[in-house]
Amino acid sequence: MKFIVHNLRMIRARLRSNGWVLAELFLVFIVMWFLCDSLGCLKYTFYRPLGYNIDHVYQLSMIKGGESRDSSMTSADKYLGILQKLEREPAVEVAALSYWSLPMSGNNSYNSLAVQDTIGCAVRIINATGGYTRVFRMKEDAGRPFAAMPVGNDVTSGNYVMLSEGAADYYKERVPGFSLDTPLSWYGDSANVVIQCGMIGSFRSYRYGADAEWAFRRIDENVIRTELRDDGAQIVFRVKENMDSPDYRSKFLKEIAPHLDTDNMFIADVVPYTEQQYQFEVMKGDVDKVNTQTVVVVFLLVNVFLGLIGTFWFRTRRRRNEIALRLAMGSTKKQIFCLLMGEGLLLLTLVTLPAMIVCYNVGIAEFTMGHTELITTWPVKWSFLRFLLGSLGAWLLIALMVVIGIWFPARQAIKIQPAEALHEE
């Protein structure tokens, strides 16, 4: 306690010079909080679990060529034929056919599901066969798996769905008492009751996205044959882990693909889903956006780092004679070193609370008014915990800068001989 009081008296005695340091630390804390919040949310969003697994998952690329050898076969028959042959392959764990429904793809369709015909949510509609959730290893209720849910009459009027956890949370926030037993309807069509058959665990459409709001509908051969269009079919499959290898793609095209060809429908390629993930993120511009943002954050971080270290370095070197004089009066090197460090960290502590108040109000204003995108660009909900973590990160980084800025010049200053200091004084 005496140590803190002594440091406060020292700061007050040098109020004019310390005032500029306090002002600089105040501004630096606000900037550092924003950088820590932005970079922290970015990294959290990027690295947190997707909610599904794309390792060992491949997508077929199919083309039509020439005249059909069997005029009785429809496009749906050909897609189903390829799917059935693929499912019989020893290396294939599970396969699925979907209709404009794959994650990390530009193909999608939306509709609005409503509760009480008033509160609607624009959900992405997933039309897929029963193996879809197992291909991507999505979390589902073992008692009500997607593969066992009823099939609607057709794609456009099917009345059974499974909501993603993100969609269910959307309704729970707006409708008290919402549960998986709550009936839904297509927005504006309250006569067509939609029955919930379960829920798929929380997941994101891609690495930079927020929790997805999807509605899953299972389709079967009848629906595929009556509703499927040529440009909407997508076949994906998961390879058994012990049978996957870096050269699996070339082996598949050489040894397996020719056996899957059906009539005039041919396998052109088989693409690892990890490759599609990267292509999708590049297409959306997220890779460039994140890289640019990271460069800007690092650039600002380095500038703040060098500027603050320089301030305390210069400040400590100017007090070289004072340090030597204290040594001559009987202070130990450890006492002087702790005194300088304590003064620097105390200066930071004095501005922390006022700066945190400013930062918190900036965060509140961003999320309530939304006039700019300084903070709202990150798909992480604003919370007091997020604010505290950003503040803690800012304080620790600035404290590190202060320590480095004092450490080296202080070590040099305490080596001065007291006699030399008294002569200079």
From TrEMBL:
Q: Does the keyword Transmembrane apply?
A: yes
- State any GO CC term: plasma membrane
Query: Which residues fall in a coiled-coil region?
Result: none
Q: Give the residue spans that cross the bilayer.
A: 21-40, 295-315, 336-364, 384-408
Q: Please indicate which superkingdom the organism of origin belongs to.
A: Bacteria
Signal peptide (from-to): none
**Domain ABC3 transporter permease C-terminal intervals:** 295-417
Presence of keyword Cell membrane = yes
- Protein name (Swiss-Prot/TrEMBL): ABC3 transporter permease C-terminal domain-containing protein
What InterPro entries does the record tag this protein with? Answer: ABC3_permease_C (IPR003838), Macrolide_Exporter_MacB (IPR050250)
Keywords annotated in UniProt:
Cell membrane, Membrane, Transmembrane, Transmembrane helix
Under Gene Ontology molecular function, one entry of this record is: transmembrane transporter activity
**PANTHER family annotated for this entry?**
ABC TRANSPORTER PERMEASE YTRF, MEMBRANE COMPONENT OF TRANSPORTER-RELATED
Question: Which compartments does it reside in?
Answer: Cell membrane
Main localization (coarse): membrane
- Membrane topology (UniProt): Multi-pass membrane protein
Q: Which Pfam families match?
A: FtsX (PF02687)
Organism (species) = Bacteroides stercoris
The UniProt family comment states: Belongs to the ABC-4 integral membrane protein family.
